[in-house]
Amino acid sequence: MPPGISASDFYNILPELVLTSGALVVLIVDVLLPKERRGALAWVTLLAIGATLASLVPFRSTHVEVAQGLLAVDQFALFFKVVFLVAAAITVLMSVRYLEIEGASPGEYYFLILCATLGMMIMAGGIDLITIFIGLETMAVSFYILAGFIKPSHRSNEAAVKYFLLGAFSLGILLYGMSLMYGLSGTTNLRVMAAAFAGQETDARLVLAVILVVAGVGFKIAAVPFHMWAPDVYEGAPTPITAFLSVGSKAASFAMLIRIFLEGLPSMGHDWRLLFEALAIITMTVGNIAALTQSNVKRMLAYSSIAHAGYVLIGIVAGTSRGITATLVYLFIYAFMQLGAFAVIVGLRRADVAGEELKDFGGLHARNPFAAFAMLLFMLSLGGIPPTAGFMGKFWLFSAAIDAHYNWLAVIGVLNSAVSLYYYVRIVVFMYVKKEALGSEPATSPTLAVVLGVAVAATLVLGVYPRLLFELADASARTLGAAGVTTSLR
Amino acid sequence: MPIIAGHIAFYYLAAASIASAVLAVTRRNPIHSMLWVLALFLHVAGIFLLAGAEFLAAVQVILYAGAILVFYLFFLMLLDLPGETAEPRFGAHWPLCAAAGLGFAALAWFARDPGLVPTAGREAATDASPGSLSAVGHVLFTRFTLPFEIVSLILLAAIVGAVVVAKRKAGA
Fold this sequence. Notes:
The complex is a heterodimer. Chain A has 20 helices and 2 strands. Chain A is mostly helical. Chain B is globular. Chain B has helices at residues 2-26, 30-50, 54-77, 81-86, 94-110, 133-141, 145-171.
């Protein structure tokens, strides 16, 4: 037994161990299977994700620190782990057809998806700067490769290189801030750090550290003005990867953000709230206005995803336990509507049509009524129209802001939602009103139908009956902090 | 007396680091830039040595001056060097970049603390000093075993990535 890890620690990181084993099994099975049967790897990957989900069950109400305070196994991490695993499973399901059309080799692809998921899980559980950074790096390295996975595509290569360079740059900024935090507190553990920083609010060096960490995290959640990479990368990366990137990576980065700022820097709350408030306002506004003029749907959804990061930041700014709950609820709901929208784009991808342009959606209602209806629902949900889940999510976010006396932040959020409706409804108009349809018939595949079905069901059910999700998120938000109480929440 | 010598050494190393960094950015010939980066790495290694962190100094020389610089040089071979040299060294945005750099320097200056400046000789270079080889190794294999193991997975992902890129070259 290596010192630093005890036997009980091994038990507590069981889900991570299961996922890692699953990833390695995928890599081995890839070599063993004959080339024409490698499509079966998707099922091995799904099995690994399912086993990991099952192994989370014993940790429903665990609240411990693992490996001398490097990782926390609590309901907050659990909530995010479920989001990541569900997102990964949906991504794998929509990749099956996409990989066939693009002719890409599935072994490395699925392995990297599982690696990225593992990185996210470690980010969500990390309560130490070292674990958080290493989880972030595991996720980022996997995504750099996945973004450039499709062979002949120049756009895919450009996306990968841009993502890699800007990602490395932003990691440098983040590390600079983290090293200042370490230098000033003498520890990398966020909870010990919070105690060391109590009463140090006016320390200029700490302010500098906060600014740098906000900038580094801002890159990862694609908040304006750190968003420049997102549209190009989202457009160029393979569509299922874009979906996973915009859901999984974003949720993981928000988990990291909450851990660092609420657990590690609660005493600096005044400073980082101000920064995030400014970021939330310009992120919502710039994201929505830029999305108005896009004709490529992937690019449009990229800007929409930037705007949604702005909405989620409202919950962080509010900083109350209600605000954090709303953040968790929104990230969960957002996962389904965003993944669903990208699944429709994957369905439109044929040998002769890229399926990414607005005009490719023309006449979809006549050709594939279910896909058109699903897209309609996702667009309404992203725009925040009842009775979809997106409405409930926005409702909780904005009411949390009003609760914490950030009234005008909620007003700006509502105004932005109104602006965003224009470009969401534009797709709906193309699908239902325009008659001219391009290219061959969109083919349907059973795996895509499953994805759409799950996403539609989640968007509707969570819109009508959000209570259970809200209670789970609430319980998760309350486990933040060393004693499992919301001392760090205002 | 050794403290004064340490001070002189520190200020020489710091000044030389900054000078070589500036030269690395402003040289027209990328190879010259690279050589100044090498000088920068070596001087920074010297600063680590003064702070009693021999291990970090060795890593700085072996990894940065060795591996990473060679990687950069490989990359430079892919460029059209005479063409690069003929082009103006800076794009149109360089005043903005310089302003951002100076702004950050000002921020760091504002946030500085005399207690943080690594004064030479404050830490004796013993085996127990935090940057020494045994200290790093001890911490890596006890307290930080878990992140250390996760790093192995990052490396595996990177290797898989290299295979993906190499396969693409072979397939094309």
